[in-house]
């Protein structure tokens, strides 16, 4: 399951899309520091959370500058672009689309503003009341053009929030946030800024992680603690569900916009977050190892070797081996340089499928009874191809063990799963899935075993993708979906508004996209 940052996703086969994270966000307020480079490295640590586009906004207290483009963090930024982002506060974003298509217009941070200043906003999560927010934007903008990026083709829930935050020029950004945030439903972790102040906010359920860190000369907020580590920030605490934080020259201040009703995403522990991240007091790697131990207790089998599907199944495979006493080994070699495949494989290579990224160690596998541990099964195509490949390499038996329950329901809170009809576990039992994969046996961890491994209280976790129990009531089907806003906001002014120097006027506020980002505007 290879990810573009070298970590793994379910994309071991060409065209096989697994669960994708919504986004990663990072913010820093640190006078005297190179905030653009700190943000760049913070996003690098969060690359696994979004690989479609990346962007950074920075301000020196007077002027806000943004640079964003399609691609990985390392592809979007270079020394020149980072050098143009001067200032003492910055926010950054890496995106995987859950509302709105994967286009340059939808890259973040999104921008808005009025004569009083500019606002840049980055979002991790997914709002489920975008239709309601769209109606509110229509109401406030009247018969005039849609504000900010909405009028230039942006079709994201993030642009809706940005428009609402900047709708009233007589209100401060902080006052606007305290009015808008309680209206939002779904998962959101925001970092946003104007020319002087950095803000962070988290939904009342705390579905996605967001943490606060301290630098010697400033503050950092980020989606995961691993991003704090990479920039040398010390972990202070989580941003609390329902909390708005503001950081400026007067220091840090906090306000509540809603009461906490914690429902953290259990899939963060299973797969989404980096293993070196800590969520609500639990190190993710430890949780995954414990899931493997529970899996061994729940689904024992006689075998010669426990092996992971590299690399997402590795911690659970280690736990399974520890608990069962069966030796752990690497039966597959991954090509470390195959991440996102921009060059489509030829038909011949496509037929080889999974071998583009994994190859079996035949001497290790031949004649062995194998236990293959993975984190989840979505469509099942990858596991089916993997079982076949291991048998061709001489495996005597192949027993598949999964460190999460069957995925049967889509996520509306910031993970882009396959549709329910495409999920292999929908409507069929474990034995039928096992036969479909061609495995000798199949065992999923129980919901109770998975939750116990996280050390979280069951009632404070969201398990909707496994149970269908959604903690935030969903609107009607016609008010949901990734493309909900695609046809709702016609483009009022085209991307030709961007000049040769890359300057885009957003609500009469001049915002510059430096260097290559100007090219990106002309080649969305």
From TrEMBL:
Keyword Coiled coil: no
One GO biological process term: purine nucleobase biosynthetic process
EC code: 2.4.2.14
Cofactor binding mode and count: Binds 1 [4Fe-4S] cluster per subunit.
Record-linked InterPro entries: GATase_2_dom (IPR017932), Ntn_hydrolases_N (IPR029055), PRTase-like (IPR029057), PRTase_dom (IPR000836), PurF (IPR005854), PurF_N (IPR035584)
Catalytically driven reaction(s): 5-phospho-beta-D-ribosylamine + L-glutamate + diphosphate = 5-phospho-alpha-D-ribose 1-diphosphate + L-glutamine + H2O
Cofactor section: [4Fe-4S] cluster; Mg(2+)
HAMAP family given in the database record: PurF (MF_01931)
NCBIfam families according to UniProt: purF
The protein's name in its UniProt record: Amidophosphoribosyltransferase
Source species of the chain: Knoellia aerolata DSM 18566
Taxonomic lineage of the native organism: Bacteria, Bacillati, Actinomycetota, Actinomycetes, Micrococcales
Gene (UniProt): purF
């Amino acid at each position: 399951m290879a990810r573009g940052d070298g970590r793994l996703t379910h994309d071991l086969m060409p065209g096989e899309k697994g669960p994708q994270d919504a986004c990663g966000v990072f913010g820093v307020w640190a006078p005297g520091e190179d905030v653009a480079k700190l943000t760049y490295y913070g996003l690098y640590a969060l690359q696994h959370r979004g690989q479609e586009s990346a962007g950074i906004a920075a301000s020196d207290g007077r002027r806000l500058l943004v640079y964003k483009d399609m691609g990985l963090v390392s592809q979007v930024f270079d020394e020149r672009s980072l050098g143009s982002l001067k200032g003492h506060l910055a926010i950054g974003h890496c995106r995987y689309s859950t509302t709105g298509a994967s286009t340059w217009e939808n890259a973040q941070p999104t921008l808005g503003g009025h004569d009083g200043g500019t606002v840049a906003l980055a979002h991790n999560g997914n709002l489920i009341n975008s239709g309601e927010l769209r109606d509110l934007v229509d109401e406030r903008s009247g018969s005039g053009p849609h504000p900010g990026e909405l009028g230039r083709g942006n079709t994201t829930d993030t642009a809706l929030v940005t428009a609402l935050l900047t709708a009233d020029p007589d209100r401060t950004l902080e006052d606007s946030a305290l009015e808008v945030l309680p209206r939002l439903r779904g998962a959101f972790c925001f970092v946003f800024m104007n020319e002087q102040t950095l803000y962070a906010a988290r939904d009342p359920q705390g579905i996605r992680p967001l943490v606060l860190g301290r630098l010697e000369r400033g503050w950092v907020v980020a989606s995961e603690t691993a991003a704090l580590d990479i920039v040398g920030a010390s972990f202070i605490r989580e941003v609390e569900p329902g909390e708005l934080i503001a950081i400026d020259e007067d220091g840090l201040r906090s306000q509540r916009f809603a009461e906490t009703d914690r429902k953290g995403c259990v899939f963060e522990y299973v797969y989404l977050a980096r293993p070196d991240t800590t969520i609500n007091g639990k190190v993710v790697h430890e949780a995954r190892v414990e899931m493997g131990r529970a899996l061994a207790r729940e689904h024992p089998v006689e075998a010669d070797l426990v092996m992971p599907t590299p690399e997402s199944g590795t911690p659970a495979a280690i736990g399974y081996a520890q608990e069962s006493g069966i030796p752990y080994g690497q039966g597959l070699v991954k090509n470390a340089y195959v991440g996102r495949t921009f060059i489509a494989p030829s038909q011949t290579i496509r037929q080889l499928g999974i071998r583009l990224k994994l190859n079996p160690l035949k001497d290790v596998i031949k004649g062995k009874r194998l236990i293959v541990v993975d984190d989840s099964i979505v469509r099942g195509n990858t596991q089916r191809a993997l079982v076949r490949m291991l048998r061709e390499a001489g495996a005597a038996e192949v027993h598949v063990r999964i460190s999460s329950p069957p995925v049967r329901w889509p996520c509306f809170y910031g993970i882009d799963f396959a549709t329910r009809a495409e999920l292999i576990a929908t409507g069929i039992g474990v034995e039928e899935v096992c036969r479909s994969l061609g495995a000798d046996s199949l065992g999923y961890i129980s919901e109770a075993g998975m939750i116990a491994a996280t050390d979280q209280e069951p009632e404070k976790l969201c398990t909707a993708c496994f149970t269908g129990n959604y903690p935030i009531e969903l609107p009607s089907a016609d008010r949901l979906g990734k493309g909900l806003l695609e046809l709702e906001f016609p483009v009022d002014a085209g991307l030709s508004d961007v000049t040769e120097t890359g300057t885009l006027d957003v609500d009469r506020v001049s915002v510059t996209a430096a260097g290559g980002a100007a090219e990106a505007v002309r080649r969305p």
